[in-house]
Amino acid sequence: MQIESTQELHAPRERIYAALVDPEILRRCIPGCESLELTGERTYAATLKAGVGSIKGTFKGNVRLEDMRPPEHYRILVEGKGIVGFAKGSATFDLLEQDGSTLINYLGELQVGGTIAGVGQRMIQAAAKMMAGRFFTALEAEAMSEPPAVAGG
Amino acid sequence: MISAQFDYVRANTLDEAVSLLAQNEDAKILAGGHSLIPAMKLRLAMPQMLIDIGRIKDLSYIVEADDQIRIGAMTTHYQIESSDLLKKICPLLPECAATIGDVQVRNKGTIGGSLAHSDPAGDWPAAVIALNAELVVAGKNGERTIKANDFFVDLLTTALEPGEILREIRISKPHGRAGQAYVKMHHPASGFAVVGVAANLSLDGDSGCQLASVGITGVSSKAYRAAAVESGLTGRTLDDKTIAEAAARATEGIDINGDLFASEDFRRHLAQVFAKRAITTAASRAI
What we know:
The structure holds two protein chains of two kinds. Chain A is an alpha+beta fold. Chain A has a single domain (2-145), classed as 2-Layer Sandwich (Alpha-D-Glucose-1,6-Bisphosphate, Chain A, domain 4). Helix content of chain A is 30%, strand content 51%. Chain A has helices at 13-20, 23-29, 115-145; strands at 2-9, 33-40, 43-52, 55-69, 73-82, 85-98, 101-113. In chain A, strands 1-7-6-5-4-3-2 form a seven-stranded antiparallel beta sheet. In chain A, a hairpin with a 2-residue loop joins β6 (85-98) and β7 (101-113). The longest helix of chain A is centred in the C-terminal third of the chain and has 31 residues, at 115-145. Chain B is an alpha+beta fold. Chain B folds into three domains: 7-50, Uridine Diphospho-n-acetylenolpyruvylglucosamine Reductase, domain 2 (2-Layer Sandwich); 60-172, Uridine Diphospho-n-acetylenolpyruvylglucosamine Reductase, domain 3 (2-Layer Sandwich), CATH 3.30.465; 177-285, Enolase-like, domain 1 (2-Layer Sandwich). Helices cover 33% and strands 27% of the residues of chain B. Chain B has twelve helices and 14 strands. Chain B has helices spanning 14-23, 36-41, 77-81, 84-89, 92-98, 103-108, 111-117, 124-130, 148-151, 227-233, 240-247, 264-285; strands at residues 7-10, 27-30, 49-52, 62-65, 68-72, 134-139, 142-147, 152-154, 157-158, 165-172, 177-186, 193-203, 209-217, 224-225. In chain B, α10 (227-233) runs antiparallel to α11 (240-247) and α11 runs antiparallel to α12 (264-285). Chain B starts with 6 loop residues before the first strand and ends with a helix. The interface between A and B is medium-sized, with 21 and 28 residues.
C-alpha cells in the first residue's frame, strides 16, 4: 500500500528537520511510541502501543534513517511486529520552504501482514492516515516550542 | 480464536454501568457484542473488563415523544427492522436495519453499540446523520446531547468521552412530503457497506426540495454529511439532471479510503452512483 501526502507545518524548515531526526522528539510525536533507543548508527529500537478505538496492539521493531540531506530530504525505514501482525515500510520525506512554513511531501510504502491485515485490511489505510495526522500535529507543536537542535543526526 | 483474559461484570442499571466505567479505565461496554467480541477473539482488542449492559431493562425501546422518535441504545437492529411505528413514520431506519449483516447479527447487534463503535463502514452512522439525530450520552457528570454530525470524529473514534455511555437516539419526526431511502453496496463477504448512502428529503407541493440531508458511510474514515450534495438539492426542483449533478459531488472535500476490495477511484464512483439512487428513491417516495 502506498501512502502519499503533503503536509504544511507552520514552523521553519531547519526546525522541522531537526525535530524529524531527533529521537527524543520523535518518541514524543509518534502516536503510542513508548520507547525509542539508539542501537547503531542512525538505527533505533522502538516499542509502539498503537491503536484506534478499542483496537490496540503492541509492536516492537527497528527504525533506520537514511539518505540524510539536511534540511531537505531523508528516508526512514521501519519494521515491526506484534501479536496481531507485522508491518514493514519505508518513506521519503522532502521538505520545502514556503513563506516561513514548511511543506513536507512524503511518499511511503507500507506492507502489513498477520491478523491485522487479514481482518483489518479495509481500515489500514484510514488508520495510517490518522496516525500520520496525529504525528504531524505533535511535530508542529514540538518544532514551534523547541530551540533548534543541530541538524544531521 | 480465544480472547485474552478479562473480567466480566453485569450492570443492572445505567448508573451502575457509568460508575463501573469510571472506576475501570481499561473497561469496555458490552452491548450486542457483534463488533467487540470478534475483535477480542482475534486479540485485536484486549480490554481488562467487560461491563455488560445487555440486561438493563430500560435501554431497549422505540417510542414517540411529542415530535420526536426516541430509540434506546440497546435496541437491536431486528427490533428496528420490524417496528411498525418506524415503518410508518421514519422508514429510513427499518430499511437501513434490514441491510445490516445477517439475521444473527441483527438479532443481537444494537444501534447504540454500532454507533459507539463508529466502524467506517457501519450503516447506522450514515442513517443518523441523514436524520439529523441527537445522541444522548450518560456520564458521571450527568447527561449531554451530541448532534449526530458531531458524534463521528475519526476512524473508530467518537465524541464520547472516556466514561460516557450512549443512552438514546432522538430523531425529529419528518414533516410534510418527506421521502427517505438507504441504499448500499454490500461487501459480499462481511455485509458491511462498501458504500452506503442515506437520503432524507422534504419536498413542497411542486417537487421543490425544501430540505435535503444526505449521510454517506464506507467511503472515508468515518461517516459524513455530504454537504455539497445537499446544497445541490435544496431549493431546487428534483428532476433527473439536478439529482445527477448533486450526486456527482458525493465525495467533494472528502479523503477517500481504498482497500483491496475497492480502490479510491472505485469508491468515488460508487458513492456518486449510490447517492443518485438514494436521492431518486427518496424523492419518489415523497407523497
